[in-house]
Amino acid sequence: SLSVGIVGLPNVGKSTLFNAITESAKAQAANYPFCTIEPNVGVVEVPDRRLYEIARLERSKKITPTFIEFVDIAGLVRNASQGEGLGNQFLAHIREVDAIAMVLRCFEDPDIVHIEGSVDPVRDAQIIDLELIAKDLETVSKRLEKVEKMARIGDKKAKEELEKLSMLREILEGMEPVRRRELAQDVREYAERVLFLLTIKPVLYVANVDEEGLKGNEHLEKVMGYARNEKAPVVAICAKLEAELVSLPAQDRKELLLAYGLEEPGLNRLVREAYKLLGLITFFTAGEKEARAWTIKRGTKAPQAAGKIHSDFERGFIAAEVINYEDYIKVGSISKAKEMGLVRLEGRDYQIKDGDIVYFRFNV
Ligand code: GDP
């Protein structure tokens, strides 16, 4: 499943947030189909009311949501790429995640030391990016050395690669994360899949505010301004409150949320934003036995979506019976929707939409 790495300077609230995530994961453990979970990995349900509505209306016996992984990546400090602190082992962990949630301290608390001496989330974000940029520069330079030699002896492919590398180096030498630039498709793929650059991974900023800050504070404002430059999402949460919420029984949780004027835990927003950031959408399958949510990349066509369920479904794909949740919920049942002719028959070129309820027809 897709994973999001939680990074940030020390004392910004990463562990508090991560603990809230794993606690909520434990509560959902019964739902979780995979068994071994590493200590620094928290697997959480992607909250989706639609799935529960579908299950209720179809009287499904079992409900299976989709999940997203959060990985706690500790050890980032200024000059970490030069071996400060725990060294740069953690950079390898960042390489393995699909997106980065950068936790920024946006709360004042004289009792909690800030490693940089003051609360300044934009500076913190820049420190982290500089570490990632330094590592990427190292990656690019090493590769450049090799490829330059190959180009000198007339390797044509090497020359093409050289161009890409020079372009990437220029961006990084300008102290800019690669993700901020519009890149040609081939350069992007090269940076992602050949070099595994860190600064090309999509980022979402988690502004850790105190309880009062949930309505906004000056630090949060600055983070929003900063994030706008790269069109990155910002999720304001209070990690401390999240940790408290997961420890409460459902009724008390509701009351505490209400007291802060919140509709749902910040964790839900975080998960949804991460999901969006990764370009993911959900489709459903539903019947008496089970109502289930499935995750696919936006743009996935019907046969490949079917393949998520079973490779036979993809191989033997004939057609997909589809109704979107918006239409479904007006009618209230799949069988009624069928009677009314609202369930469409789609072929192999159909791109599954978010919220589609799908029944695949296939040959065995
Ligand atoms: P980490 O080093 O980034 O993992 O940070 P921790 O999660 O260990 O948090 C550092 C300290 O800040 C702990 O004492 C937390 O209780 C505290 N903390 C975390 N979030 C908040 C918050 O939203 N408000 C306040 N006042 N303290 C917080």
UniProtKB/TrEMBL annotation:
What would be one Pfam family of this protein? YchF-GTPase_C
Needed cofactors, names only, are: Mg(2+)
Answer yes or no on keyword RNA-binding: no
Q: Which InterPro entries match?
A: ATPase_YchF/OLA1 (IPR004396), Beta-grasp_dom_sf (IPR012675), G_OBG (IPR031167), GTP-bd (IPR006073), P-loop_NTPase (IPR027417), TGS (IPR004095), TGS-like (IPR012676), TGS-like_dom_sf (IPR023192)
Listed GO MF terms: ATP binding; ATP hydrolysis activity; GTP binding; metal ion binding; ribosomal large subunit binding
Q: What highest taxon heads this organism's lineage?
A: Bacteria
Task: Provide the function of this protein.
Answer: ATPase that binds to both the 70S ribosome and the 50S ribosomal subunit in a nucleotide-independent manner.
**What is the protein's given name?**
Ribosome-binding ATPase YchF
